Amino acid sequence: MRKFALLLLIVSALAVSPAKAEEEVADAAADRPAQDAVEKFSYYLGYRNGQALAENAEKCPADEAAFLRGVRVALDMEESQDEDKEDADYKKGLESGKRIALFAKQRFPYLKVEKTVDGLVAGLAKEDSAYTDEEISQALRTCSKFIKAPAPQDYPMLGQQAPKWDVGPWHQLPTGKTSLDISDFKGKVLYLYCFQSWCPGCHSRGFPALQEVAKKYADDDDVRFVVFQTVFEDRADKPVNTFENLIKIASKFELTMPFAQSGSREDKSKLMQAYKTRGTPWTMIIDRQGVIRYGFFHIAAKDAVELIEELKAESENTISR
Questions:
Q1: Backbone conformation region of residue 117, classed left if phi is above 0, alpha if psi is from -120 to 50, else beta
Q2: pTM strictly above 0.70
């Protein structure tokens, strides 16, 4: 298949000028992530999951070999064996493998499942990563733009009253305030953004959209913005989703609205649980009555502005926060 694709490329180049051919090759390369980045990203996906399993006594397989056979069978890397079918660890491996396969099918078709399994093996064995933190960070940045968001599904909190927050510590609170809660935004259209410091999509999509929308409404008292770091995962040896990094990110993106920390690796975000968010980045828009009108992994700035304008125009007669 690779030789056939190369042949097509050569034939195409003969039909156009050399300069034009170079442009077309560059455009084609931009349509897919670099192979080296894909391999590192694929490895890290498995490695992080392996680490998480190794640190969870209830989920860590007693028989790693049976578990990994299940993973490989689910990924069509091995044939199933009758003697494995009733093995509990084999079944756990099947489920993990199916999740990897689903991610590759629906969200990242470039995934190298063999490298993901390599990472999973290393993570389970508590070995050092095959790649440095800097190499992984670069791979995450490269690949994140090619990861598709899950297909929109019914968000159970749509149309529901926004719960109280119970978060902190806070950064950039208004003068005289020691904390904030949903009741402080009575009568306002509220844009809430949830992130984690190590989340690539938060940096590449979520924060830029927030920047653009916040800039438009910088002088509009009817629209407010609050940002939460909703932590539900992190590194055990070197935490990344910290309050200190929250402060650095606010400065990096030149955002002056209130930021709050919600949760840690050991104590999962209570705000995430209350609002039933599905991960990060996650954006919610709340109307003047405190009702959640939007919730999903991402919203384009222009779509957010359109919804905010609709909510601003709605009646203020039934404020219930």
A1: alpha
A2: no
